Amino acid sequence: MTKNLLRFLAKGLLALGALLVFLHCDLIKYHPYDTKVSGEINHNEKAIEEIQQRLKDKSEFKFALIGDSHRWYDELGDVVDALNKVEDLDFVIHSGDVTDMGITQQYEWSQRILKRLKVPYIVILGNHDMLGNGFEVYKTMYGAENFSFELNDIQFVCVNTNGLEFNDNQPIPDFVFLNDKIKNYPEQCKRTIVVMHAPPLSEQFTEENSALFEETILRFPNLMFCLYGHVHHLNAKTLFDDHVMYYSNDKIKDKVFQLFTVKQDSYDYQEISL
Amino acid sequence: MITRKFLYNTVVIFLITLLSAEITVASGRKSEVDILIGHKIFCEDTVMSHCKMPHCTMSGCAMSVAQLEEPKKKNLWKKLIPDYQKIQFAGSMGLLSVGTGWEYGHSHWETDILFGILPKYRDIRAKAIFTLKQNYIPWGIRLKENTWVIEPLTTGLYLTTLLDNRFWIKEPYKYPHGYYPFFETRVRLNVFLGQRLVYNFTGEKWKGKSITVFYEFSTNDLFLTSAFKNHEIGVKDILSLSFGIKLKLY
User: Fold this and answer.
1) First vs last Cα of chain A: how many Å apart?
2) Are B124 and A164 a contacting pair at CB < 8 A?
């Protein structure tokens, strides 16, 4: 009697298993680093277009700065929910380290959470995002690692500063890119904001590059301030013996974000904790 | 200080020790003949596919005691020859992996080595993956005359290594010490649960040969840590499904 029962149980378990498999064919995965991006690609470009549309008839705009979300997915979700309640928010900048190890699925998980933002958002390349083949995934999902865009009379220059992650003989930051942006500065722009992940004087920069970087960006017309992440600490200070303010975001685990309201001649700065 | 790396090394060393112990002790145990005879007595009365040897049928052991007592010399060299081949699709081992392995411990344990190919997709090149897999199959339930056997549960661990120099186990020297703590990029420790269905060939020529089809749900150390205490990451996010076939055709 027990023989038949056992056989019946076995068949039942197998049938259950087969059903489970049939219902979950979407769970077939090849490897965490497979770079099989199934969702949106080239996100930053589309977000920028959206932002420019939103600001068409506005003279002022307000944006939030967050970053370094790594594996703190719940905290990122909470911050996204809080940002959705901010009045007159126009867009969000994530200053990088949107993953912990550049794993394709980590990029997709963060993307999924950030998509809940009611406003457009831009993601900068962080050093953690470059681990393994993360750089390729970033380029697919978000676009070029060095880019710029204009909002009213302000040019945002977003530059890859993760020098320590590169092995080749290429200058990071890309001074050719920066010089080109200075040389071909758009006519309608009068002020500049530079956005990066790792700041100069950090271990991602060489000492010479730090000085050269600051020298270079000072040549942008009316450099308002710089934004960065990486250090997992809120900062609002100058880094060099000059007037340029550098603002950095805290790690998302601490659930704080910063708001910048850019007006015609000035800007307001706020730190908000949840 | 107990770091995650230290824990892994400990677990891996423990597993290897366990494995070697299992193999050495097993070879020093009762002779295979004694085991077979003892099993024959057990075999007469059970539906459990204890050793899954083809001479075991529903009605008992098809071999006589005399046949079982025939000396069977299986020297160490023969033991080193793999017992089967495996082909596996997906499972975080690459798109398709092929490999071979050894069966032991009354067919309860299997150790596979597999090589997988991961296509390029958005990367700069395709990659190869090497997998070392340890399987434990506690039960085999025989159906019709030992032709079909259901293995309702398989479980085990496997290590996957990316054969690409952009991925590392030890942080490259250029980084300050402990720059990327906790996990490395090259190796992943996976755990799985699955089920298998065995077809034993009948007929004189095909005796002892079989084909097994199986599926597995797996996840890895990093994903488990990511999902742990994170409500945003669910069970479906961290699971990986794979299918495979095990061939014992020689």
Assistant:
1) 63
2) no
Chain A neighbors of B59, CB-CB under 8 A: none
Give residue B166's pLDDT. 92
d(CA B43, CA B53) in angstroms, rounded, equals 10
B152, A13: Cβ pair inside 8 Å?
Answer: yes
Range with the poorest average pLDDT among B39-43, B126-130, B200-204: B39-43
**Two tokens, residue B52:** 């899954």
Quote the CA–CA distance of A133 and A102 in Å, as a whole number.
7
What phi and psi values does residue A86 have, to the nearest 5 degrees? -75, 130
Instruction: Identify the H or E element spanning A224.
Output: strand A223-228
Please list, residue by residue across B186-200, b when 16 or more beta carbons sit within 10 angstroms of its beta carbon and e when fewer do.
Answer: bbbebebebbbbbeb
Tokens 């998302």 locate to: A252
ipTM of the complex: 0.88
- Search chain B and give the residue with CA nearest A4: B47
Structure tokens at A81: 């929910």
- End-to-end, the C-alpha distance of chain B in Å comes to 50
B28 Cβ contact partners less than 8 Å away, ≥ 6 residues apart:
none
* The predicted structure's pLDDT at residue B11: 77
Residue B214's identity, in one-letter code, is F
> Which residue is listed with tokens 């000492």?
A207
Task: Please enumerate in sequence order all residues whose Cβ is within 8 A of that of A82, keeping only pairs 6 or more positions apart, or say none.
Answer: A255, A257, A272, A274
3-state secondary structure of A7: helix
Q: Which pLDDT score is estimated for A148?
A: 97
* Interface touch B215/A34, C-beta < 8 Å: no
Taking alpha carbons only, the member of B217, B135, B124 closest to residue A134 is B124
d(CA A253, CA A70): 9
Contacts of A3 in chain B (CB under 8 A): 46-47
Q: Does B190 touch chain A (CB under 8 A)?
A: no
CB contacts under 8 A, B 193-222 vs A, are 195, 197, 215, 217, 220, 222
Best of A133, A167, A172, A202 to substitute, by most chain B Cβ atoms within 10 angstroms, is: A133
The answer to whether residue B59 scores a pLDDT higher than 60 is no
> Which chain A residues have a beta carbon less than 8 Å from that of B241?
21, 24-25, 27-29
Report DSSP letters for A74-117, one per residue: HHHHHHHHHHTTSTT--EEEE-S--SSS--HHHHHHHHHHHTT-
Q: From A31, which residue of chain B is nearest by alpha-carbon distance?
A: B92
pLDDT in tens, B106-153: 788 999 999 999 999 999 999 999 999 999 998 888 887 778 889 999
Closest Cα in chain A, distance from residue B25 (Å): 31
Q: What is the structure's pLDDT at B63?
A: 59
Q: What is the pTM of this model?
A: 0.86
